Amino acid sequence: MSKSGVIVIIEDDMDDRTFLGEIFKELKLPNELKWFETAESAMDYLCTTFQSIFVIISDTNLPGMGGLEFKKTLDDDPKLRRKSIPFIFYSSVANQADVNNAFLNMTTQGFFKKGPDYQNSKNTIKVILDYWGLCRHPNTQ
């Protein structure tokens, strides 16, 4: 994980993309943002890119392959698993069964429910990124 690497965001809802885009802009992050509407397109990117990835932030409810299936697919790919990319779910739905599945059956590092307002969401995203900016990691550069 490169602390200056790309932040990959998988979000299909245009309103949420706009909302998150404003948060990332206000946080003034130096990281490039890569947006994907589907897990399949994010998977294609992750399998072919030579860029370092800082963190993946994914919704759970996505068209086609859902977020949980996407994470399981990443975990099952030896090349991608070896990269140890931090993976965070950020979703409007955070039922306990999905949370349990994400932590007990996958290498998920966080599961957050989207905030009820802008400030709450901004604080959550900032905490996530600050944590991974400080955290030691197998691929820390």
From TrEMBL:
- Keyword Cell cycle appears in the UniProt entry: no
Keywords, ordered alphabetically: Kinase, Phosphoprotein, Transferase
**Taxonomic lineage of the native organism:** Bacteria, Pseudomonadati, Bacteroidota, Flavobacteriia, Flavobacteriales
Q: Which GO molecular function annotations are given, in alphabetical order?
A: kinase activity
Q: Which residues form the Response regulatory domain?
A: 6-129
Q: What is this protein called?
A: Histidine kinase
Which Pfam families does the record match to this protein?
Response_reg
List the source organism.
Flavobacterium subsaxonicum WB 4.1-42 = DSM 21790
List each coiled-coil range.
none
Look up the record and give one Gene Ontology term from the biological process aspect.
Answer: phosphorelay signal transduction system
Q: Which domain of life is it from?
A: Bacteria
User: Carries keyword Nucleotide-binding?
Assistant: no
Instruction: List residues, modification 4-aspartylphosphate.
Output: D59
